[in-house]
Design a protein that fits this description.
Length: 445
């Protein structure tokens, strides 16, 4: 059993009144905060299978921190739905921050996902590849040099994080971005940033990943086997505390992103594109709360913790099993509702934390093993889902988008039928004037 790292300070910044759930908010903490107290041992992971090796020659980029090694291994083939075919049930597990600290949860979940035919998205915080002795290299928009609301990592954690980002990518997982300083709940957070600010923040995150060899001196480590330039390997991210998405998406469009996972809340329906940007909008979702026909909550571990502590009071270790089951049931409620009805993708957000005795990590473990090997289920990355959506006929996607939450489909021929249309165009080639079908609830301040 893991121990609690420390009491989480729960700050609720807003309520989505339309459907009654709390948006994700943090007090400046994020994944990997215990690394200074519990550093990793610096041992690299064991070599992967032959299929987990770069496919092409290694072509170093810049100082050799990254490299072009050809197509990413272990990627699924995109196939168009056949007439009458039921869509797969996509489940996307994503991780904010993604530091490999002393608890070694990145490597653990990499092995868990591989064992259960799953792949995941890791939203890497750029400063987790920057030694704390060089923190002054980072200047967040509207902040002083070296300021950050999450900790800079120990040298060992930085090293192990770099090692793991290589390993998870070779296994087919995605490396997105969680940007840098995780500033929240202030006049200088991402909520107040302009598109230029978001572009600056992103460019800094990318620069830290692209230059970790220079910044760390770890000349003995191989390069990350991908080009982390926006629009290449990096095609999406999640904003800290889900703040500032409108201007972030404007910047993301310019940088060549194809999706964004920063929406402050959505429903279990098929995703749509932003009106101004053409970028796929992948929100955390409102899932039904166990035992309550009217209550719902966002599909993120932090929000489960908030709901449980609001309902049950301070965490009692003697109730650990009951709280853990409730968290798992919450995820499974959302899964079953989509799997048995409209087949809308399920988005689950997480942090590599041991809140309340690690029960939320255990709930995710149980959910991975419960769903990812089921028939017609694909536990994929946001990038892979984006590729699939853009590989389908637009008319079919539009019909899927018209299905409501929990709407049964008695005959999939009415949704998926023969079409001569071309697949969806990637966001980078779409007009900004194309219509937006996404009508998501917004925060009430």
């Amino acid at each position: 059993m893991r121990t609690v790292r420390g009491a989480a300070v729960l700050v609720v910044v807003a309520v989505l009144a339309a459907i009654g759930f709390v948006v994700f908010a943090k007090d400046g903490k994020d994944s990997g905060n215990s690394s200074a107290k519990n550093p990793g041992n610096g041992n690299p992971s064991a070599p992967g299978k032959e299929s987990d090796k770069p496919r092409g020659p290694v072509k170093p980029i810049g100082d050799g921190s990254t490299a072009d090694t050809g197509p990413q291994p272990n990627q699924p083939k995109v196939e168009k739905l056949k007439p009458g075919e039921k869509p797969p049930q996509f489940v996307i597990f994503s991780w904010d921050g993604a530091a490999e600290d002393g608890n070694k949860l990145v490597s653990e979940f990499s092995k868990l996902s591989e064992a259960n035919k799953a792949q995941m998205t890791y939203f890497l915080s750029g400063i987790y590849t920057l030694p704390k002795t060089k923190k002054a290299m980072y200047t967040g928009p509207k902040h002083a040099a070296g300021a950050s609301d999450i900790n800079f990592m120990s040298d060992e954690t930085v090293r192990n994080t770099i090692i793991q980002m290589r390993e998870v990518w070779l296994k087919g997982n995605e490396i997105g971005t969680h940007f840098n300083g995780h500033f929240c709940n202030s006049a200088t957070s991402g909520k107040s940033w302009s598109p230029a600010d978001w572009k600056n923040e992103t460019e800094q995150a990318v620069k830290f990943v692209q230059n970790w060899k220079t910044n760390t001196g770890y000349a003995d480590l191989p390069p990350l086997p991908f080009d982390y330039a926006p629009g290449k390997e990096l095609i999406g991210g999640r904003a800290p505390c889900l703040e500032g998405q409108p201007n972030l998406m404007r910047a993301a469009k310019e940088m060549g992103f194809r999706y964004d996972a920063s929406s402050p809340g959505g429903l279990q329906v098929w995703p749509k594109r932003g009106k101004e940007t053409g970028i796929w909008d992948f929100p955390l979702q409102s899932l039904p709360w166990p035992g309550s026909p009217t209550k719902s909550q966002l599909s993120m571990d932090y929000n489960i913790m908030y709901e449980q502590e609001a309902v049950h009071g301070k965490f009692d270790p003697s109730k650990k099993d009951a709280w853990e089951k409730e968290a798992h049931d919450f995820y499974m409620n959302g899964f079953q509702r989509a799997y048995t009805t409209n087949r809308a993708p399920l988005f689950i957000g997480n942090h590599f934390e041991d809140w309340n005795g690690g029960i939320y990590m255990n709930a995710v473990r149980d959910t991975v093993t419960s769903v990812c090997t089921k028939a017609d289920v694909r536990c994929v990355t946001f990038r892979q889902l984006t590729d699939w959506l853009e590989g389908q006929d637009p008319a079919v996607i539009a019909k899927l988008q018209g299905l409501g939450v929990g709407q049964n489909v008695t005959d999939w021929n009415t949704i998926v039928n023969a079409s001569a249309q071309s697949p969806n165009k990637p966001a980078a080639s779409r007009s900004l004037a194309e219509p937006d079908h996404a009508v998501l609830p917004r925060r009430q301040d």
